[in-house]
Recover the amino acids of this structure.
């Protein structure tokens, strides 16, 4: 095995071990550092709380990604966020609604909401029809999502998934309804339009931090801590390498 392959293997295994170790809640409480401040996600939590108090609904747009494609990572983040939002709004008169453009993703959203209600001992309140398949291509997905924005008393929108630039139509419609909008995507065209259209756009890897800040699972927080540790290791390695290069050692 080449040196690069061995190094990649060590990084992967080391990262996995760090995530497992840091997933223990007691250890997380003893860490000398915490997650970086993320004001946008604080405002999201506040918006969810206000929606519950006002009897309004939350909407999660999960995009059109197939679970068999590489873009499914963003869909999995959206499902984790859906689980958190559903648990936070169990007491609401209007439960969250999730829109998706893939059949498998739609079924998973229904199952995610059912599991959240089961955790909250409120399974009888589970509205299975709120995990909706609204369109199977980008245009029909947007067309099926817009009625949710206009007609279902939604005050908080969380747009997380694989979108095209047409997602700006949903963000603009939500803004016209004076609703809170947080949005992110794994697609560069979608990121560019959401940066201009959404109230709270998330850029790049910020997408994958959403479940951790919503306290979905200790493993989510552990993954962010692991990323920070790896960044510091990389920075230290670059600094040491620079000094060794200047000294003529390497």
């Amino acid at each position: 095995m080449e040196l690069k392959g061995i190094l990649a293997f060590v990084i992967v295994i080391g990262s996995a071990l760090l995530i497992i170790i840091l997933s223990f809640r007691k250890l997380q409480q003893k860490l000398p550092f915490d997650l970086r401040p993320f004001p946008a996600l604080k405002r999201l939590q506040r918006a969810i709380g206000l929606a519950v108090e006002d009897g309004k609904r939350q909407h999660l747009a999960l995009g059109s990604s197939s679970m068999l494609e590489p873009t499914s990572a963003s869909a999995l983040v959206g499902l984790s966020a859906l689980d958190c939002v559903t648990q936070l709004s169990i007491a609401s008169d209007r439960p969250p609604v999730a829109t998706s453009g893939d059949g498998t993703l739609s079924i998973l959203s229904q199952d995610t909401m059912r599991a959240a209600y089961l955790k909250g001992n409120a399974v009888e309140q589970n509205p299975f029809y709120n995990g909706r398949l609204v369109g199977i291509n980008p245009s029909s997905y947007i067309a099926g999502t817009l009625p949710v924005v206009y007609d279902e008393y939604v005050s908080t929108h969380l747009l997380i998934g694989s979108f095209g630039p047409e997602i700006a139509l949903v963000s603009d419609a939500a803004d016209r309804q004076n609703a809170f909008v947080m949005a992110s995507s794994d697609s560069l065209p979608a990121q560019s339009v959401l940066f201009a259209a959404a109230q709270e756009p998330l850029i790049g890897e910020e997408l994958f931090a959403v479940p951790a800040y919503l306290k979905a699972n200790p493993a989510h927080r552990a993954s962010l801590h692991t990323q920070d540790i790896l960044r510091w290791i990389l920075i230290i390695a670059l600094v040491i390498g620079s000094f060794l290069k200047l000294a003529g050692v390497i």
